[in-house]
Amino acid sequence: MAFSLFTFFRKITAGILVVFSIACLAAIFITRLPDQEVCIALYHYSTSQPANSGQIIFDSNNGRFNAETRNGNSTGFIGSPDGTKYVYLKSVPHETDLYDIYLQAQELSAKPHLLQHDVYYAGGNVQLLTEQLRWSRDSKQIAFLWSNSDQDFLLSIANVDNDQIKTVTPFAKDPTKAYYTHLQEWSADNHYISIIDQILNYTHYTFWDTTTLTAVDYPLNTASMVRGVWSPQGHIFASILRDGNLKPTHLMFLNPEQSGAVIQSSLPKIDIQHLMWSPDGKALVIGYLTCNQANCRQQWHYALFQSDGTPLAMDLEGSVLNSTNIGGDSSYGPDGLTTYSGYHFNAAWSSDGKRFSYLQQATNGDNPTYGVGAFDLDKRQAVTLATYQAVNFSNKFFHTLRYTTVSSRIMEAIPYVPLTDQMIIPYMENGKISVALNDGSLQKPIQLVSGADQLIALPMSFWQSEYWATDWNGNDHILLEWSTGQGKDKRLKLTTADGDGTNIHTVDEDLTDILNMNFIIDQKRPKLGFMGKKDERYDLYMLDFDSGQQTRVLEDVEDNATWEIIVSPQENLMAVRGNILPPGGGTLYLRPIDSDTLTKVDANPLSGIMWSDDGEKFALINKGKSNSQDVLIIGKDGKPIKQYPISRDNSQNFIPQHWSKCY
Question: Which of 26, 180, 264, 409 could form a disulfide with 198 if both were Cys (CB 3.0 to 4.6 A apart)?
Fold first, then answer.
């Protein structure tokens, strides 16, 4: 799947398919089905009527849609963390702005269960569901904010295994509340849930006991809290308090179980950017910036606190950045769980939570030197571990961006999952660049690259400034693009490794350019695809991360085109779609995994393809006669089996998601 075309298009064959369109987001959690498949779940989105977008079930035997999903489409899918269930909305017939909330098992042959009737969404703004529904971390409960037809604003918590639903009215009758009140996150022990309420320029958090469904009293009703996040264990909530001028004044630790007891620690007058718990939940770090001029390079500083509010270190000096590097990255999927979450300071906790490591900047200028600093929580002492001549500092030394299904936070770019202090260190050695992987104590370095003339930033937005990337199955890999030679003698190479430094492989195909790098959807054997230029021609390559085997999949592809490779569940075939130039769908081929025999498929794709679980066929949306959109089912031999027209309306779009049985 080409990253530049489908930035937010994400498939995980074992569990998740997330599709982004201009209308809305949807997530479907799937499993392999042992019985005969007779239906295809399609995601339908309408550019003319976004509220009518959602999942529909198409019977591939008779070419008919399931009446329940066709007449009143389901939308707003939010899946459980364990991938076994999901919640969706369905419009109430003959009503305006009213929807029913259903609970559905991933096996579509099971009937959906009505969770809540007549939920009001003004103007059909069903996107509010993604901000107002959160699964508990154990997938056993669902909390959701909602309005009824009288526009009362309510909070409900439903148990998934039975019909027990508890409901309260947490706010006065105020329909505008629905637009700036959001469920934030369950605590790690599923005992509490936090709600964000935005009032003017102040952010307020309220906390609810999910067992008794009562609000927790705490003595900060007028305080403005920001950057709030639950600890990785239990239910300690940390947040920054601001004064009337929106300046941070205190770090707050709240334990809802102790009658709203609050611990406050004073903060210097600083611009708080990020905070992050240690993995064991015993300490917290705050990253903040200092700048003495109107237009200047800013320097990271770090302050450490114990969870009881005891300050450990108030001014650990980090690296210097310019203003373009001070933001945070996060992208939350519609399930409220699928999350890219990143922070831009070059620092991380050790996996045991006993050491906080950070990059220091020892000197400025054209050839700066950098040091690795660390704060030992047992000794309560900061030390400099090493100083060296580093290169390509625009990239991050620590792993700072990760795909995760642990956090369900919204609105704030705060890393919830602590990342370990493994470091990629590029350094000068005899006029050449070497790259090593170390942990925060700089012990037992693993050499990844030697003899490079230049390191090259990875050519896609999500991976910019990252030496690490996460594949479709949540596994971390190291990706290093580098070159040797200059001018016409310049040659590009690509070194890959697993996140722990094992399985090191280098692509050395005498390439003069590398484009459109991205992971390939393959559950069993992680693979990488990319376009490489050689002898003035671009070819599509595939790299197996485990074996290091390199395969040239397609020859002579467009340099500005994108591509898609989908491996069958049986790992013996792959569907290859190359030269995708929107709005065209590219050319579709089939080929065995272990052979270069290409079979061109007679199709005009309008979507990606979806293999059946037995690997005998696949489905796609095809452009038919008179520009119709058809469901096209093709056998593993590349020959069409069935084709059904489904729409002649160009504002209606369809994407196959998975095969199933019909209910």
Answer: 180
Token pair recorded at residue 141: 């409960």
Is-contact 84 106, C-beta < 8 A? yes
Rounded mean pLDDT of 494-516? 93
Strand partners, 294: none
The stretch 219-230 carries a mean pLDDT of: 71
pLDDT tens track for 563-612: 999 999 999 999 999 999 888 899 999 999 988 899 999 999 999 999 99
CA 448 to centroid of chain Cα atoms: 27
Mean pLDDT calculated for residue range 495-506 = 94
Closest CA to 185 of 417, 427, 469, 28: 417
Contact 657, 28 (CB under 8 A): yes
Please give the helix or strand (H or E) that residue 70 lies within, else none. helix 67-70
User: CA separation (Å) from 65 to 41, 113, 645?
Assistant: 10, 20, 11
The alpha-carbon radius of gyration of the chain (Å, integer) is 26
| Predicted local confidence at residue 548, as pLDDT | 93
* Dihedral sign computed on CA atoms, order 379, 383, 386, 389: positive
Query: How distant, in Å, are the alpha carbons of 75, 208, 217, 332, 545 from that of 212?
Result: 31, 8, 14, 29, 49
The answer to whether residues 136 and 143 touch, using CB atoms and an 8 Å cutoff, is yes
For residue 588, give the nearest of 558, 567, 608 by alpha carbon.
608
Query: Which tokens in the block code for residue 290?
Result: 């200092």
What is the structure's pLDDT at 350? 87
Bridge partners of residue 42, in order along the sequence: 56, 656
